[in-house]
Write a structure and sequence with these properties.
single chain; 341 residues; alpha/beta; Rossmann fold; Zinc Finger, Delta Prime, domain 3; two-stranded antiparallel ribbon; 14 helices; 8 strands; globular; binds zinc ion
Length: 341
């Protein structure tokens, strides 16, 4: 578990003990912040038949770091109480029947909704509502997890609202997202919202025991830092983007990544920003120090605007044709870079 999630685990453990865990919770944060991890832990804690209690380190200082919380009155209370009451976290035993079934993805009183391709449709949410209407098989709690809740279609979100408004007892719905700004306000208002904010810069590098002194490492690098395969994929993608900008190479590979890889558009924006940093002599977040002199500042700025506009479309329009958007973006970029200097 990521160290910055500990404060949140402590707070949620306390809420469970005091019977103050709400029926709907929303965990948001940048990709890799740990929202799915914390939701998974919490569900397992709610289902486990033989919970353990870990006395954890005192985070009185850090309890407000790492998480900020909206629509909550208990956080300041928690920090005050933490001084007198020892912080602890619940941990699932991992050994009981429900833990084993849950680990196997076969626990009957839990449902995870996954987005097939790019969206969560109304059928998936109806399945969730029906799931909650039935009585529990094992009879402890019923839980559901909706990952990437921002990808719900409007009708799916409206269907979910009904379920959120009429909670059945001992039922818990967790939503995770990396862009809560896209979620309907009516959904957000029915959830207790936890915004996970991991540390940045050197602290972030230290968390992953990475060498370096780069103060510009930020949260958008999380998935690259936490996952070696992603780091490799990112570097390969970056080289191809440079090849495309400078020599119009690798169009097909870039297109495939933009269409199929969920990080493609975000990576592209990051790469272009880093190229601009180089051009303007700003410090760079990566280690690209070679001069990129093939396209000029003005072209780079135009490319940046195109990429940013595409990213906004991707974020705000739920049912967008990603293939078309990617093809158009590459075509528009190619028009810009082919202009004579
Ligand atoms: Zn257990």
């Amino acid at each position: 578990m990521k160290t910055w999630l500990l404060a949140l685990q402590q707070q949620l453990s306390r809420q469970i003990r005091e019977n103050k865990l709400p029926h709907a919770l929303l965990f948001s944060g940048v990709d890799g912040a740990g929202q799915e991890e914390i939701a998974h832990w919490l569900i397992n804690v709610l289902l486990c038949q033989n919970l353990k209690e870990d006395a954890s380190q005192d985070l009185t200082q850090g309890i407000t770091q790492g998480i900020t919380q909206e629509k909550d009155e208990s956080l300041s209370q928690v920090s005050q109480e933490a001084a007198s009451d020892k912080p602890f976290t619940f941990q699932p035993c991992g050994d009981c029947k429900t833990c084993k079934l849950f680990a196997n993805n076969s626990y009957p009183d839990h449902l995870t909704i996954v987005n097939d391709k790019n969206t969560i449709g109304v059928d998936a949410i109806r399945k969730l509502s029906q799931f909650f209407e039935k009585t529990a098989h094992i009879g402890i709690a019923k839980t559901a997890l909706v990952n990437h809740a921002d990808t719900m279609t409007v009708s799916a979100a409206n269907a979910l609202l009904k379920t959120l408004e009429e909670p059945t007892s001992q039922s818990f719905i967790m939503l995770t997202t990396h862009s809560s700004d896209v979620l309907l306000a009516t959904i957000i208002s029915r959830c207790q919202k936890f915004e996970i904010r991991p540390p940045v810069g050197k602290k972030l590098l230290a968390e992953y025991k990475k060498q370096g002194d780069d103060a510009f490492v930020n949260l958008s690098h999380l998935s690259e830092l936490t996952d070696e395969a992603t780091a490799v994929a990112f570097t390969a993608f970056r080289d191809k983007v440079k090849g495309y900008l400078c020599a119009h190479q690798h169009r097909a590979e870039l297109l495939a990544i933009l269409v199929e890889h969920r990080d493609g558009f975000r990576w592209l924006e990051k790469i272009v920003v880093n190229l601009m940093r180089n051009h303007w002599g700003w410090p760079t977040a990566g280690h690209q120090n070679e001069q990129e002199s093939v396209i000029n500042k003005q072209q780079l700025w135009q490319v940046y605007n195109l990429v940013q506009a595409a990213n906004i479309k991707l974020k705000t329009l739920v049912q967008i044709n990603r293939q078309f958007l990617s093809e158009k973006l590459l075509a528009d970029i190619s028009v810009v870079v082919k202009q004579k200097n």
